[in-house]
Write a structure and sequence with these properties.
With 528 residues, the chain is of the alpha+beta class. The protein contains 19 helices and 13 strands.
Length: 528
């Protein structure tokens, strides 16, 4: 089931919804904006105001025998005893059993499961091609499994009991033919030789769905209780606004944003992700779960810009658009919060060291951001066209810019603090872009949003138009690129991988040297 794209974005274009969220973490939704004269974290939302340890103990009390603590009631025991585990292709999805009895929550689980299966349909097509016999067999198995999940009634699902014998499949009385299809699908998705990009055999990408803010924050507290590194990373300012964390290798995904009407010290309230977007929750689950899958496929490294672009494009394939709020990465070091900008935008700090946390921005400003208009239904191509046209006009007046005469190299950024504009010039891809200096701090919010749109459009173009006038060969080379990602030891290897596949550099310092990025920039004005 592919959800139709939203045709009318007008319902989210009202600044009267002054709902503030700050870009606080790559791992989550942003935190509410502070008044201009105050710090970026509003009063009442500092780490010191949240008793993380108490939240963690609350989670233990709700899920463990009386008298147990986090040392005697380990994570895996809690998952086995208190959570339904649904095998969904290459994923294990965990859902709190007590929430299965809430009809609306069970419906959200069902939508998330179907979204994950739809994502894996595209995953198979992208990695194997639609016409290969292996792909056709895998897709047929996937449809059998999907049809079975879609047939389940919430009244059936609510009866699952992890203390009873049998897996979720068995307790739901799954037919033998569906079980066999699920087994074949599992084998295919873990076959590295066939898929090219796959987890180790038997290793599932693990997703835990947290239907309400209280559970999500209790998991934040629990993660810090059981692991010192997670305490430093998660028990920090702004974490109450996040929408996902990792507990070991389990990616915990919230169903709700933090309430937009003010800080809730009990975390008993939340704002549904579908409040402005009917597919918002599924987009979130698909995008983050793709990153979780890729993380399990890679050899010794975290996903980077390429993998993130893949996740954004897969969310568009499944839902028709992608309006997820992606935030600035936050890391805890010796109790201090740092924002590694390289996690989400190319470039560096010429002064050395680490830049301060990204400045606050209101949520409605992000929704209205120039790079987000249309929700990505066209992979943000129209937005980039407009930014490129304006950038060319402004760059032409700046003779100090060595690329001032290039009509395709520039885009205009907006400030989050003034009416000022900033001209940003290519390249934005590959190792050469990482050596460039960041734009001024006040433009970093818009820069992040620009690059989110840019990488989505670029990698969509690469899959469809990477070889001029040959869509089939474009898809074939894109498959080779995806296959090659699993063999890279670092992000720097992407440049060499692209060169080996396409016979062209990923990018270059200007359009004088032929490269994929500069071909994309020249295509963009007439692209669609």
């Amino acid at each position: 089931m592919r959800a139709p794209p939203l045709k009318d974005r007008g319902m989210i274009m009202h600044r009267s919804n002054a709902l503030a969220l700050a870009l606080a973490s790559l791992l989550a939704a942003p935190a509410p904006a502070a008044p201009p004269s105050s710090s970026a974290t509003p009063v009442g939302r500092t780490a010191e105001s949240i008793d993380f340890a108490a939240l963690g103990r609350s989670f233990v009390k709700a899920n463990c025998p009386d008298g147990a603590d986090h040392t005697t009631c380990p994570w895996e025991t809690i998952l086995a005893a208190r959570y339904a585990r649904l095998t969904v292709g290459v994923y294990d999805v965990y859902f709190p059993v007590q929430k299965l009895k809430v009809k609306e929550r069970a419906k959200e689980l069902n939508e998330g499961v179907l979204g994950l299966l739809d994502m894996q349909r595209y995953w198979i097509q992208w990695l194997l091609g639609s016409e290969s016999e292996t792909a056709k067999a895998g897709l047929a198995d996937l449809e059998l499994v999907r049809d079975w999940y879609e047939s389940l009634k919430t009244s059936q699902v609510s009866k699952f009991d992890p203390e009873e014998d049998g897996t979720f499949f068995e307790q739901m009385k799954c037919k033998d033919e569906v079980l066999a299809a699920a087994g074949r699908l599992d084998a295919l998705l873990h076959d590295r030789e066939t898929m090219g990009l796959a987890p180790d055999p038997g290793r599932q990408a693990r997703i835990l769905l947290a239907p309400d803010r209280r559970l999500f924050m209790e998991l934040v507290g629990y993660a810090g209780l059981v692991d010192d590194d997670q305490r430093k990373a998660y028990w920090i300012d702004g974490v109450d606004q996040w929408t996902h964390i990792w507990v070991d290798w389990v990616n915990v995904l919230a169903h709700e944003y933090a309430p937009w009407g003010g800080f809730d010290p009990d975390f008993s309230r939340g704002e549904t992700m579908t409040v402005h977007d009917q597919t918002g929750l599924v987009e979130h689950i698909v995008q983050r779960s793709t990153i979780a899958l890729v993380r399990n496929c890679l050899v010794g490294r975290e996903p980077g810009h390429v993998e993130d672009a893949i996740s954004l494009n897969l969310a568009i394939e499944v839902c028709g658009e992608v309006n997820t709020i992606d935030s600035a990465g936050v890391r805890g070091t010796s109790g201090a919060t740092t924002a590694p900008y390289s996690r989400f935008v190319p470039g560096g700090n010429s002064a050395g060291g680490v830049l301060p946390a990204i400045s606050a921005a209101p949520f409605d400003a992000l929704v209205e951001n120039q790079w987000r208009v249309g929700g990505g239904q066209d992979h943000f191509i129209d937005n980039l066209k407009k930014g490129q046209k304006d950038g060319a006009k402004r760059a032409a007046k700046d003779r100090s810019n060595p690329l001032s005469k290039d009509k395709h190299a520039h885009f205009t950024l907006a400030s989050d603090a003034s009416a000022e504009k900033y001209v940003l010039s290519a390249p934005f891809m590959g190792s050469i872009a990482m050596k460039k200096e960041y734009p001024p701090f006040e433009f970093l919010v818009d820069y992040k949003e620009f690059f989110r749109a840019y990488k989505t459009a670029f990698f969509h173009w690469l899959r469809m138009k990477g070889v001029e006038n040959d869509e089939d060969l474009s898809r074939e080379k894109y498959r080779a690129l995806l296959h090659g990602l699993s063999g890279l030891e670092s992000h720097e290897g992407v440049d060499a991988l692209v060169l080996s596949i396409y016979g062209l550099p990923l990018s270059g310092p200007s359009g004088e040297e032929d490269s994929l990025e500069w071909r994309f920039l020249r295509w963009l004005p007439k692209g669609k």
